[in-house]
Write a structure and sequence with these properties.
Helix content: over 70%
Strand content: under 5%
Number of helices: 6
Radius of gyration: 14 Å
Structural class: mainly alpha
Shape: globular
Largest sheet: 2 strands, antiparallel
Number of strands: 2
Order of helices and strands: EEHHHHHH
Length: 105
Amino acid sequence: MNCNGVDHDKLSFYLHSAVKSELLTDPNRVIAVARKNLNHWKNRYDYEPQWMSDWEEILSKGISAIIKILDGQDEKSVLLRSSSPFAGVLSNKERMRVIREKRKS
């Protein structure tokens, strides 16, 4: 899979690295955005997919548990990043900057 010249999983990793920086700077805001997204999605589903439950559990464990997933190279981390609750943490400008930088490298 390719997105703007960068493998999708790698791009997701790079974007989540930027999310990690935001998490370390302002953890309350980042976690609040993730929880708000999860609550919004729960209201849209007739059932709760496993990834939602997994993210809720990870968020409840705190920053180190979140960073473990954001940095993880294991299958579960890659899968969870593909269903990330961190939409809105990065501005569109920040997202595009990461994409441009990684496309060049």
